[in-house]
Amino acid sequence: LNIDIMCEGHENIIDPAKKVSKFLRGYIQLNKQLNKIIENPHNPEILFELTLLTYELEFYENALDFCNYLLEIYPDNNDALKLIPEIKKHNPIEINYIKGLLTQATK
């Protein structure tokens, strides 16, 4: 989708249209990742890509759930450990379970 051309002369709708376009592209990518996860449910790279896509689409609670799952299987996954504080900036709910995983992973 070329939103810039479609919205030429309508600057007041460019930003919302770009956001929708970004969301749709992200949603398509998310769908592809979900299909990969079905085939390889314990692949850490695919799990992290799914987590990152979910985070980028601003589904923070889901991203946190995927991080939890990834850390259950791979407690020392540095990518997931680095992403959790970023997710928590957007999700103010304190989750003791994550603190426990972080403590275990950093020992």
Please describe what this structure looks like:
This protein is mostly helical and 107 residues long. 75% of the residues lie in helices and 0% in strands. 18% of the residues are buried. The mean pLDDT is 74.
SSE layout and pairing:
Layout: H1 3-6, H2 14-39, H3 44-56, H4 60-73, H5 78-90, H6 96-105
Q: Report mean pLDDT, rounded to a whole number.
A: 74
The first-to-last residue Cα distance is 47 Å
> How do the SSEs run, as a string of H and E?
HHHHHH
Structural class based on helices, strands and sheet pairing: mainly alpha
What sort of overall outline do the alpha carbons produce when their principal axes are compared?
A: flat
Helix content: over 70%
Tell me what portion of residues adopts beta-strand conformation: under 5%
CATH superfamily: Tetratricopeptide repeat domain
Q: Could you tell me the number of beta strands?
A: 0
**Radius of gyration from the CA trace?**
17 Å
List the total number of helices.
6
Fill in the CATH topology.
Serine Threonine Protein Phosphatase 5, Tetratricopeptide repeat
Q: What would CATH call the architecture?
A: Alpha Horseshoe
Largest sheet: none
Total domains, how many?
Answer: 1
Ranges with pLDDT <50 over ≥5 residues?
none
CATH secondary-structure class: Mainly Alpha
Compact overview of the structure:
The protein has one domain: Alpha Horseshoe (Serine Threonine Protein Phosphatase 5, Tetratricopeptide repeat), CATH 1.25.40. It is built from six helices and no strands.
